[in-house]
Amino acid sequence: MISATHIHAMIIHFPIALLMAGFFSEGLALISKKDFFKNAAFFLLILGTLGAIAAFISGGYAGEGIEEGPLKEPIGLHEGAALLTLCLAIITTLFRIVVYYLKYNKVWAKWVGIILFTILIGSVMRTAYFGGQLVYAHGAGVELTLPDFK
User: Fold this and answer.
1) Rounded CA gap, 58 and 60, in Å?
2) What ranges in the chain are assigned the alpha helix state H?
3) Burial (CB count <10 Å: 0-12, 13-18, 19+), residue 91
4) Contact present, 91 and 116 (Cβ < 8 Å)
């Protein structure tokens, strides 16, 4: 049976990959000055942010009911980091949408966008680290079953 924990594990890898690919596209756009990479970074950021919203919602359901016990603190750290990441993703995306559609080509706006994206990726990595700790150090969502030797 698929649970909220399984759904969260299935969803979460998409926004991580989309945001990381968008960040690398942003770097390639900066180096190569090609519009393709700039546009790719923009749309990957939007898709990654939409995925982050879905991941945050599914993570809320996956962690539901764990208010006490040994997982309380690690889940709290992961949830706090996820909320920060979600807020940064939304802020970065809204900023980039305004700059993109107004065709605002000032140097400071480009650098603010890059700095926001860099901070967002740092936050994604921090959130992913706490999520990995939940699974690999604390066994969250892991079902322990003995093999059927029949």
Assistant:
1) 5
2) 4-32, 35-62, 72-101, 107-136
3) middle
4) yes
pLDDT in tens, 58-82: 998 887 767 677 878 888 899 999 9
For residues 114 and 31, give the distance between their C-alpha atoms in angstroms, rounded to a whole number: 13
Structure tokens at 16: 């991580």
Alpha-carbon distance 44 to 38, whole Å?
10
Closest residue by Cα to residue 87 from 124, 133, 132: 124
Q: Write down the pTM of the prediction.
A: 0.88
pLDDT average, residue stretch 46-65: 91
In whole angstroms, give the CA distance from residue 6 to residue 10.
6
